[in-house]
Amino acid sequence: MTDNDKKWIETPISRRGLLKTGSMAMGGIIATSMFPGRVLAADGSPLGNYPVGVAKDSCFIGLGCETTGPYSAQGADNLKGFQMAFEHLNNGNELMRAISPDSKKGILGKRIEYGNVDTASKPNQAIQGMTRFIKQDKAILTAGSVSSAVAIACEKLGQREKVIYLTSISGSNATTGEDCQRYGFRSCVFGATASKALKPVLEKQLGKDKKVAYLVPDYTYGHTVFNSMKEFTGQIGWSVATEQVAPLGSSDYSSYLLNAAASGADVFVNICFGADAVNSIKQAKQFGILDKMTMVIPYYTPFLAQEVGAEIMQDIYCVTDFAWQQQDQNELAKSFVEQFEKKYGYKPEWGAEASYLQIAMYAEACERAGTFRPEEVIKAYEAEKELETMLGKVHMQASNHQLVHDVPIIRGKKPGDMADSEDYFDVVGLTPGADVMRTEEEAGCKLGSYT
Amino acid sequence: MTATAEQTSTRSTSSKKHGWGHLAVEAAVLAGLLAAPFVLPLISMSMDVMTRSLIWGLFGLGFAILFGFTGLLSLGQAAFYGAGGFLASYLLTNGIIEQTLLALLIGTLAACVLGLAIGLLVERSKGIYFAMITLAFGEMFYHLDYSTLSGYTGGENGLAGVPVPLIGSYTIETSLGMYYFVAVLFFLGYLLARRVVASPVGRMMMAVRDNEERAKATGNATHLYKLVAIVLSAAYGGLAGGLLGIFQNYMPPEAFAFESSAQLLIQTVIGGAGVLLGPLVGASVWLYLHDLLQFNLGLGQSWKLILGVIFVLLITFLPSGLLGEARRLIHWLRARGPADEADDNEAASTVVADAGSWPVDEPTPEYGPVILEARGVSKHFGGLAANSNIDFSVREFELRAVIGPNGAGKSTFFKMMAGVMPPSEGTVHFDGNNITGKGVTRVCQMGMSTSFQINELFDRLTVRENLMIPCLAKARGRFRLDMIRRAERVPELDARIAETLELVNLSHRADTPVSHLAYGEKRRLEIGLALATRPKLLLLDEPLAGMSPEERQNTVRLIKSLRAGRTVIVVEHDMDAVFELADNISVLVEGKILVEGPPDEIRSHPKVQEAYLGGVDA
Amino acid sequence: MLTDLISSLPPWGLVEAQMFNGLQQGMLLALISAGLTIIYGTLGVLNLTHGALYTLGAYAGYVAYQATGSFLTAIAAGALCTLLVGLVLERGIIRYYYNRPDEDQIIVTFGLGIIIVEAIRSYFGGMSRNMPAPDWGQGASQLGFLQYPFPLYKIETIAISAIVLLIFYLVLYRTRLGLVVRAGIEDSGMVSLLGVNVFRAFFVVFAIGAMAAGLAGVINAPITAPTPDGGEKFLVYSFVVVVLGGVGSFPGAVVGGLLAGQIMTLTSLFYPSLSEVMLYVAMALILIFRPRGLFGQAGRT
C-alpha cells in the first residue's frame, strides 16, 4: 500500500483542535497523511510536501503560465524563463552558478521536473491546477503569474498548503502588501516601487510641477497604482489634471483620451496593462495626444513595444523590471540575454527574467538552508543575503518578502536610432533599490505563520 | 437532448409496477458516490476533480430541472452561483457565521430570493429571448461583483481565506472528508430533485417544455411553475457556489462570469440535459479531459484546440449527451420486437372499427339557463374589425355550431369565447360570471375547456401523461406547490384519467407515446385533453379538420356522445357534420352574426346561401 | 439647481465627439449583428463562431497587408477568407444541426469558435498584431464642425461600414437571392415547399453572414489591435444587439447596433465603469417591456 492509499482511508472528520503532538509518535509519513500540514513542526518534521515530495531523486515544481487567454504571450515568455532555469539547474550552467554558487546538479542534487497549468489568467483555473500539483504531484514549489489576482490567490493557497509560491509578473501593491504571505515571494517591481523609481527620473527628464492626465483601468490593481503614482509624483509637485477610469477590457478609449486631451495636461500616465495598453496607446496616437503630451507607463507590459511599434513607442517613459539593454552594464545580464536568445530566438522580456531569477534564488536559498523544508528555506530567504544577479545586487526584504533591486526606467528610441529590430529602448535611469523599497508601515504586510 | 417519451413513459409505468425501481436507482447512485474515491483514481481521476464534479453536478441538478425538464435555456445561472457563493464565503471568512451549514443555507436562500426577483422579470420570455435576458442579468451581476461591490467580494482578487467546514464542533480538514461532505449534500439535492421531477409540479414543468400554451389552456398557471423552476435552479446554484468557496478556501470572481454559465451548459449538454445526473457526468468528463489534455498528454499550447475538437465531435455524435444516449440505447434494446408492429396495425383498425362503441341518436336534452353569453363583443386589429358588436348566447346542454365563410372572423370569435384573446369591446359571461379578459387558465378552472384546430399535444409524453396534465389541474387548481409527493399519488387521478380515456376510446393506447399515434387518434386525444377537466362547456375548434370520411363519422359520433350532461359549441366547416350534430347554428359573416336558428332553417336560408356562394340566381 | 445640473454635464465638444464615436462603433456592431441576425433568422442557427470569424477576418487582412502593403487588398482578403470558411463550416458541420435544438447549435458553434481561435493562436502566437491605418486614413480631422479633431480613419470606417451595409441591403431587398433569404426568415419550410432550393440559399446566407463578421474584423483592425481573443467581446455584443433589435430583422440589427454604440459611448462619458453593463441593462429593459425586441416579429423565438 502506498502513502497515497493511506491518505485515502483516513478518518474524514477530526475534532477541532486535534493537533496532538502525540501523533508524531506514529512516524513522520503516516502523520503527514492523517493531518496534512497541521502538525506543529519541529525541525526535520514533515511540512507541506516535505519530505514526501523529494523522497525520490527528483523534485516537482508546479507552474501556472497562461498559454491561452489575454496574456498568453507574456505567459509563454514566463514559461520559457522557467524552462531555461530548470535546464540550467539540471545540467549546470555558469550563469546559474553565479547566482546560486552551491548549486551543482538540480536543487540539492534532485533533478527538477515540472508541470504547467494554463491559468488563462484566471484565479480559479490557477487554483485548480496548483492544487493538483500540490496534492497529486507533491510539488515542492509553485510559481508563475502574469495577473496579480492569480498571484495573490496562489500565494494564499501556498500558505495554506505549506508550499512556497513565487510570482513572475505581479503589479499590485497587495501581493507583498496587505495580501502578503509567509509562503509567497515576489521579485519584480510593482505599482508603489515603480512610482517611487520614476520620481527622480521624471524630475530630471521632465521637471517639477507638471499637470498629469491619468488613464486608470477600473480594477483594484489600476486604482492602487494610480494612488501610488499620485502620492509619489506629488512629491515633485506633479498634480492630477484628470483621472479617467476605463472599464477593464475596453476596446475604445476615445472618450477618456478626449477628456485627457482637453484637460491641458503635460504628461499622460497610462496605467493600463496588456491589450488595453496596446489599444489605448494606439488610439492616443490617433487622437494626437502623443504629439502634445509625454506618455509615462508606470508598469511596462512585456512585448508592448513589439505590439505598438517603434514609431508610436518613441519617447514614452516606462518602468520595467529588466530591459535586455542592461546587458551593457552587467555581465550576468549579458549572459542571460545571450543564452536566452540562442535558445529561443528572441531577446527575453522581463517576465522571463523574473521567472528565471525566482528559480535561481530558490535554488540558492535551498542550498543555503541545506534542506527543502519550507520553514528553513523561508528563513534562508529572510536572512536578506545579498546576491549577485542579472539585475545587479539584490536582496530579499524579510518583512514583506519583496526582492529589493535597482529599477530601470526606459524610454522609447526613435525608430532611426534602433540598433536592431528588438532595440526599442534606451535605459535612461536606474533608481537604486534602497530608494524604492517600502518600509514595514508602508507595506502593511503581516506575514503568516511558518507552519 | 431532453427527456423523450420513452424515457418518461418507462418512468411512470415503472413507478406503478416497481416502486422499488426508483429506490434501486437512488441506491445505485449512493453506492457510486461512496465508492468513487476508491475506484476512480484507477483511471487517474483525482479526488479534487471528483469533488469539483460534484459541485458542478449539484449546480447542474437545478439547471437540469430548469433547462432539461422545463425547457428554459438560461445563460445567467452564474448570477446565482456567484451570489450564493460570495454571500456564504463572506459570512464565513469574516467570522460573522461560524457554522458552515448555516452559512450555506443563508447563501442558498439569498440565491432563491434573487431567483424569484429575476424570475418575475423574465417569466414572460421564451426561447432565445429568455436566454439573452438571463445572460444580461448574469453580466450585470458580474459587474456588481467586479466593480461596485468589490470591497466585499475582493473584485478581481476574489475572496480568500474561507475557513474549512465546521459542523457542530467537528471540522473537515482532509480531501476525503471534503469529498464526502459535498457528496452527501449532492445526494440530498439529488433526492429532492427526483422528487420534484416525479411530482405534479414536475409534470407541469415538462408540460411547459412541450407545449406551454396547451398547459395554460388546460387550467395551469404555467408562469408560476416556470418561476418555481427558476427559483429551484437558483437554490441549487447558490448552494453549489457556497460549496465551491468552502472547497477551495477561495471564492473566485469567475463564479459570476458568463463562462461559468457557459461551462454549466456545455457540461449539461455533454452529459445529457434531460437526465438529472447528466450535468454530473458531463462535469466529470469535462474536468477529466481538461486534466488529461493539459497534463498527461503533454500537448502544450494546443491543448485547448484539441479540447475544442473533442467536444465538437462529442456533441455531433451524441446528441442526447452521454447519459441521454445511454438511456436511448437501453430503451431501444428493450422496446425492440414484434410488439410494436401489432400496435400499429391495431391503431389502423381501431379507427374504423370504433363505429359501434358510442351511444348514438340520443334524444335532445332539455336546455338549462344561458351558460355562455357574449354582449356587444368586438375585436379590432388596427383598422380591421374582425368581429363587430356580436351578441351571442348559448344555453346549458345545447350543442351550438358556429359556421361562416372564410375570413368571417370565426377564429377570432372562438378565441375570445375561449379566453385566449380579450375582446376590444364588450363582455363575455360564463355561468353567471364575467370572464372578459380573465385568460384561458382561469376560464378552464371555472369549467370551460377548449380543443384546438391544430393538435396541441404534449409531444414527448404518452397519452396517459398528456391527460395527466389537465387532470392534475382539475385536482389541484391552477397552481400548487406540491413538489414532494408523487404525481401518480394525487387522489383520484388514475380514475379520472381512465374515465377520459374511455370517453375518447383511447384506453388501449394509454401508454403509447403521442408520436406513435395515428392522426385520428391524435385528434381524439386533443378532444380528450379538453374533456379531462370535466368542463361544463366544451369549445371545439374545427374538430374534424384534416380527417378522412371514416374518421369524420367516428368523430361526429364521439361529439354526440360527449354532449351528455354538458354544453358543446363547435366551430366547423364541414356542413354535413354540422347539420347532423347541431341543435342550433349561428352563422358568422364579415365579423357579425347573420342569422341563428335550427339546422333546417339555416340550410335553406337565402342570406346564408348568398354569403357562402355569393348569391344564387334562380 | 438646473444650472448646476447643466454645468456638471460634459462640454458639448466632448458629447458630439462621443456621439460620433458611438456612430463609428454602432456601424461596426450593426455590420456584425446584421450578419448574425440573417444567420439566425434564416437558418435558425445561433452562431457562436461569429466572434472567431471576426478575429479570422482581422488576421487574414493582416496577413494580406503584410504581403502586399495594400489596405484594400487586406479588406478583400478578410472578406474572402471568412466567406470561404463560412462556406466550409456550413457545408461541413452546421447543416447537420438545422433540426437540432438551440442549445446544440450554441454548443457546437461555440466549440468551432474555440477551434478557430486556438488555431489562430497556435500559428500567430498570443501577441497582438499591428495593423496600421491606411495612408488615406492617417491623422485627424475636425470635419469643419467638430470641436475636437476626430481620427480620420474612424470616420472612414463609418463610411466603409455604411457602404457594406448598403450592399447588404441591396442584396437582401433587391435580388432574387435576397428575396429567398427574407422569405426563408419568415418561413423556410414554405419556401422549400414552393420548390425553391432553400438549402442552397442557406449556405450562401451563412457565408455572407460570416463575411460580415470578417469584414468588421479587418475594418476595425487598425483601431483595436487583433488578438486571438479579441472577437469574444463582439460576439456577446452582437447577440445583445440582435435580440434588442429583434431576431431575424435586418433593420433591427442596424438600428440596434447604432443604438448600442450610442449607449456605450455616451455612458462612458458619465459613468465609464458602467458603459458595457448599460448595454445589458438596455436590452433587459427592452425585453421586459417589449419581449420581441424593437423590430422583431411576434411569436418568433
Characterise this structure.
The complex is a heterotrimer of chains A (451), B (618) and C (301). Chain A has three domains: 3-46, no CATH class; 58-190 and 325-440, Response regulator (Rossmann fold); 192-298, Response regulator (Rossmann fold, 3-Layer(aba) Sandwich). Helix content of chain A is 40%, strand content 16%. Chain A contains 18 helices and 16 strands. In chain A, the strands form three sheets. Chain A has a seven-stranded mixed sheet with strand order 8-7-9-10-11-15-16, sandwiched between helices. In chain A, helix 3 packs parallel to helix 15. The radius of gyration of chain A is 23 Å and the shape is globular. Chain A starts with a helix and ends in an 8-residue tail after the last helix. Mean pLDDT of chain A is 88; it is low at 1-42. With 618 residues, chain B is an alpha/beta fold. Chain B folds into two domains: 63-256, no CATH class; 370-613, 3-Layer(aba) Sandwich (Rossmann fold), CATH 3.40.50.300. A six-stranded mixed sheet of chain B has the order 10-11-12-7-13-14, sandwiched between helices. The longest helix of chain B has 27 residues, at 222-248. Chain C is mostly helical and 301 residues long. Chain C has a domain at 30-230. In chain C, strands 1-2 form a two-stranded antiparallel sheet. In chain C, a hairpin with an 8-residue loop joins strand 1 and strand 2 (150-151). The model of chain C has no long low-confidence stretch (mean pLDDT 85). Classes of the chains: A alpha/beta (451), B alpha/beta (618), C mainly alpha (301). The interface between A and B is large, with 48 and 43 residues. Strand 1 (13-15) of chain A pairs antiparallel with strand 3 of chain B.
